[in-house]
Structure formats: C-alpha cells, structure tokens
Amino acid sequence: MSPLLVAVLLAAEAPAVEVTAPPPTSERLVAPEVTAGFGFLGSSYASSGFRLGDPQLAPLVTARYLFGGFTTDAGVLLSLPLTPDGVGLAFTGSLRVGWTWRKWSLVGGAVMQWASGATPALQWLPTLKLSADFGSFGMTLGVLDELALLPAHLSFDLKQGRRRVSVGWVVPIGLVAGADLPLTERVGLRFHAFAFKAFQAEMAMVTVSGTFGGGR
Amino acid sequence: MTRALLASCLALAACTARPGLDAGEPSLATLGKGLPKGFLMGTATAAHQVEGGNDNDWTDWEAGRFPDGTPHVVGGAQSGLACDSWNRFNDDLAAMQALGAKTYRFSVEWSRLEPTEGAWDAAAMARYREWTVKLRAAGIEPMVTLHHFTLPKWVAARKGFETTDTQAAFEAFARRVGEALGDTVDLWCPFNEINVYAVQGYLAGVWPPGVKDDTALQVTVMANMLKAHAKAAAALREVDTVDADGDGKPTVLTTAHHVRVFQPASHSLLDTAIAGLTDDVANEAVPRALKTGRIRFSVPGTIEIDEQVDGLAGSIDVLGLNYYTRDIIRADLSSAALSNMYERKGRPTNDLGWDLYPDGLYLFLKRFSSYGWPVFITENGTADAADAFRTKYLAQHVAAIELAVKEGVDVRGYYHWSLIDNFEWAEGYSARFGLFRVDFDGTRDRTPTSAVDAFRAIEANIPK
After folding, report:
1. β-strands B319-331, A50-67: how paired?
2. What are phi and psi of A58, to 5 degrees?
3. Does the predicted model carry a pTM greater than 0.90?
4. Which residue from A54, A84, A174 is facing B8, i.e. has the nearest CB?
5. What residues of A are in contact with residue B338 (Cβ under 8 Å)?
6. Rounded to an integer, what distance in angstroms lies between the CA atom of residue B429 and that of residue B77?
C-alpha cells in the first residue's frame, strides 16, 4: 500500500460521522465485532510460465466476542468456483479462543475445510493470531490466519479513532493490506487484500465487508 | 520480489483456459486436416508388453506377491508369451498398414540383447534390425525406445538406477544398439517415463524393485536416469551418422515424458501448494533439466538435488509427451506423496478409472511449447475392453492437438497407445489399450476395434 494512500485514508473525513469513543470493551485491545462481505479469490499453482488456476467468489462472515478478557473469534467462508472443471466448491470455518489484554490479544484454534467430492472431505489446520498495540501503531502476527488463507504474515497498522490502515508481509513472498472506514458510530466498511506466492502456489484475494462494532 | 508479487496478483484473475473438448465428438470427416503437413500418425508398444518370452527383472516380479499375499500383478498374471510379437511381427506390421500408420514406436529389450554383462546376443539384434528394415520398407518411420521399464537381471542385481554405475552400462547398451540399427533408425528415445518408473518402483512400491514411500530414492533414481539419458544421447549421436529418412538429420533424440494434470481439490493453500509441488516433481522437473542441463529436485524436508550435468542440455531434439489423464489432489500430510490422488466423481472414466480429459493434452502442449522444442505425443490411449469409447477418446485428443497447432504449437507426431492389447504391467491383461484386440486365451490373432477406422480416417485427412 503506497504511503500516499495511507495518508489519504487516515486523513479522510468520514462522511458526516462523528467518530466517538468505542464501547467499554475498548479498554481491551480488540472489541466485539461482526463482519460480512464478499471476496474475489484466485488460487493457482504455477511453473515455468504455466499456471493452473481458478477464480472463485467467496462470501464470508466473521465474528468476535469478548467475555471480559476471554476472546472468541470465528469465521466462515464459502468458495464458489466461477469456472467449471477446476477447483471444487468448498466451505471453510474457523474457531479460535484466547485472551485479550489492554495491549495484547492472542487467539488460537482450528480451521476446518470441507471440499465437495474431496477425499478426505475434511481438512483441519491450526491457526494462531497475536496482536499488539505499541501506541502509535499496532502489529499482528498470524500463522494460518484468515481462515488459513494466509500461510503466515506480519502486519503493521496505523489507527486514528476507528479508522485504520494496515500493511504487512506474507511469508515467504507476498503482501497483505487493509483499511477500515467508519460510516456511523458502529458501522463501517472494511477493504482487505492479499497476494502471495508460496512454493508453486499463488493466491490472491480482494474483499469488501461491512463491519458492525469492532476495532482492530 | 516484484515479479513474484505480480504473478501472485495474476492468481486473482486466474482462469486457466480449458477448451472443454470432452463436451463433443469431433467429426471424422475433417479431423486431421488441422494437423501440419508431414505430421506422423502412428502407434506405440513396449518390448516386455508384447514380445513374450522375456527374462528380466519384471518376470521375477510377476511371480511374486506383496506381504499381504496378493500377487504383484492383477490376477497373478505373468507376461509369458504376451502377444508373441517376437514371432508375429509381421502380424503387427500388417496391423500398422491397416491403420495407414506412418510411424511405430517400439522398444528393444535390454535383457534380450545383453542377457549377461558384456555378452551380446547377435541373433536378437538381427531380429530387431529385420523389423526396422521392414518398417522403413513399408513407409513406417521407426522410433526406438531403449528403456521401457525393464532391466536385465544382472543390472537389477546391482540396484539398477539407484546407483550411478548403471549409467555406463546403459551408455554401452545405447552405443551397441545405435551401431546396429542406426542406418535404419533416426528417431531415438533412450527412456520411457522416467518419472513413472521412479514413482511406481520407489514410492508406490507396485513395480520392481517394490520399494515403498522412499521419496529420496525416487528422485535419486530420476536424477541417475537423466544422467544416463545424457550419456546415451551422446553415444547415439556419435555412432548413428546415417540419415535414414533423408531429412538431413541422422538422429532425432527425444524422451517419452509422462505428464498428468494435477488439479487441486479446492482453493486451500495446502491443496494448491501440494498440487504445485507434485506438478513440479512429476511434470516439470524432467523437461526443465533437459533444457537447462541442471537437475533440480526439491522435496522439502526430504531431499534436495541441484546438479549441473554435462551433456544433458541439448540432449533431446523433440519433446515426447505421454498423456492419459488427470488426478485431483487433496493434501494428506500423513502420506509420503503428501496427498491423495483420485478421479473426480461424475467424470467419464476408462476401464482403469482414469478421467477422460482431453483438455489436459491441450494444456500440456501449450505449456511445454514455451521450452521451444517441437513435440511428439509419444503415447496417448485408453483402456476400453468393451470397445465403447476409444474412437471418441482418439478423436477428442486429436482435436486437442489440432487446437494447440492452430494456436502455434509445433506438434510433429502422435503415437497411439497401443497398437495391440498387451501385458499392462501391474494390471496384467485386464486393461485393453489396443487398437487391435488380442485373444490372449487362444490364437493371439489381432482383431480390429472400431477405432481402427477412425485412426485411418484421421490419418487420411492429414495434409500430405
């Protein structure tokens, strides 16, 4: 994400919205949140200029809730192939639990993927996310984060109220970036994108989601 | 970094063009007209599968059983007399002529020519020479394969291509065959399916020597076979200086490289990455090594081979592709292959359960055209005992070639697997790939299947 875009996003006035202080849970690093959106996902493998890949539509919903510091984090994603005869339809769900402090949050759990006609039909992976606040910026370390779509990433974000922009490195070669734009006190838009190459695999995704509640 | 990121972004819009060739059956009235002038249409066999009477590492294997008691070959079948092509070559030649075939790919049996180290069987060599002379007289261009899965017992006893020593023995064999047949043969194929040989023998453990799940040995064998290929190619070019067909090239070297579409089961990172890794080892590593001269195999956590080999770059003139099917790849980290491979449910399949997927041939022709070699389809065919879909299979795959040719790919020939039903390795006699049916229980006469007429029609349509 270019520095200019970061500056524009942070400087932009939210349209006729008074950005007020988050609810009491804001004493902790993250707050309860629900998001729902649509993604456009491309997955492929490539070798010597050859690429075998398929585009997919990917509606997704995520939710996070805090019971004091105890944090639960869940998500579902449906991958709908746009071309016949390529990858199969798949459903992915994740469930993570952990703890959130004022400056730190750690959640871990499992990602389950069901793929139509696959043997085995279910695939399980671990997932981990560590977030930290360093005052003027925040940092997130994720392993098989974002419904295991990302192998591993290290991201940094800048916040101003509920506005946020983030950019990060996806291991081994790739980028992840995002931005939150508040529309009302509790509703906003989230733009998110990543692209990476890991061994012969390439994956990229652009997502636009509506957010309710939240922060970070 | 920038290039990799751009490539990753392309994945977002990734949509591999699959022409959907399995949706129709091309008209035999016109099929073949889109192939280039001089395109060679023919058939292929392998010595151990058709000759009969061989005595090599496979004949030992056929007599054995797995630890659970099941025979190594379906039904306990043994190659035995096979199609008796050793004695009935004239019948095979007549079958080729009935097809209107213009080329024939067959292998010479190392164990027959050199049954013990350094002892060469002149009579056996003379028999092969008789064949190449007859083929050429019939207007059928011979392509000679030197290694098609079998080893003499004395080579197998020395661990075959697991060791580097076998390279010199194979080079000597290539030199001897080149000297004997060179004036009648221009098309040479030192190895058939290096990748399949290594996978079946050292990963799946279903072919000799029956080693299971040894990925390191599997890629070591592939590397040693590539080095042996380089030595054999150099020897053939040295001893075969006679241009038998008058095209100005006394030798045209190829390798029959088995390719298979590996389709990830889902978008998941694991499925995609393991399909890509499998594709790299199985499909890409061999042609890449033949182009660059550098053998590179990478199985993370198991083995890394990175070696520049003298004479490997430039050791083929034409790339041979053996194409049959595709597999769906679902990650399974508990397996040595890291995945389950299977056919997609609901797809048309052949008698062995292989997906009938002509788009794959088109995809590989487009893909490998980037290397700059002309291409032969050195094998393509299907197991169809009921003679129900071979004609359609043939037509759809020739249509795939025509489409690739139309889009600029330089394809020079097509070898249907196979001329006649034969001993199909671990499948025994249960899989019938022949354009001609062989009665293995009786006379071993060759009887045409319905695809013979289709083959003839296609060949007749090729611009002359």
Report:
1. unpaired
2. -140, 85
3. yes
4. A174
5. none
6. 7
